[in-house]
Specification:
By secondary structure, this protein is mainly alpha-helical. 69% of the residues lie in helices and 0% in strands. It is built from eight helices and no strands. It starts with a helix and ends in an 11-residue tail after the last helix. The C terminus is likely disordered.
Length: 190
């Protein structure tokens, strides 16, 4: 389904269609929850904020102007709600949660799966050491596969700032992973 179709579905939601709402809810529920979890690092709060985000989609569907993709608009609502929750609950941006989402690996042998799980945990640990701004752009670019322009719209900064943050975030992440033994000297020249 392309963006025009999703825009039409939002118009149906604005007109009160519960079926249209259910369709977009199912389509974006996991993606919004995962994004919120990456920001707040607490599953219960991420779940609550996901529900609030979806409710806001229902209430605000008529305000969608089509200036961005529906996914960007929805993640923008989620981001605003997460940042508000972090401010209101006086939560530290340095909170580390051991319940970070798992990164699924392709089917391999048991030893390969264990190694990939260990590496995924180390990547999550290394990501937690980055600033919120750097972690956010990396996660949006690599886990959510958003282009720089959409990330810029979502976080409310110029596209060149996103590119700069991504560049420095990748450098910092690479250093942290090397310290954790995930990347060796052979990767330094890459």
């Amino acid at each position: 389904m392309d963006e025009r179709d999703e825009g039409a579905i939002l118009a149906q939601i604005a007109a009160g269609s519960r079926e249209a709402f259910d369709l977009l809810y199912r389509r974006y529920e996991r993606r919004v929850y995962g994004y919120l979890l990456s920001l707040v690092r607490m599953p219960a709060i991420a779940e609550e904020l996901m529900c609030e985000t979806m409710f806001e989609m229902w209430r605000g569907a008529a305000r969608f102007r089509g200036d961005s993709k529906v996914s960007t608009w929805l993640l923008g609502i989620a981001r605003y709600k997460a940042l508000s929750a972090l401010r209101n609950r006086h939560m530290s941006s340095d909170v580390v949660n051991d319940e970070a989402p798992d990164i699924e690996a392709p089917e391999d042998g048991p030893l390969k799966k264990v190694q990939q799980k260990d590496e995924a945990e180390l990547v999550q640990k290394a990501l937690q050491t980055l600033s919120v701004e750097h972690r956010e752009v990396l996660e949006l670019a690599f886990y959510y596969d958003l282009p720089y322009q959409e990330i810029a719209e979502l976080v409310g900064c110029p596209i060149n700032t996103v590119k700069t943050r991504t560049f420095y975030a990748k450098q910092q992440l690479k250093r942290r992973l090397a310290q954790l033994g995930v990347m060796g000297e052979r990767d330094e020249g890459a």
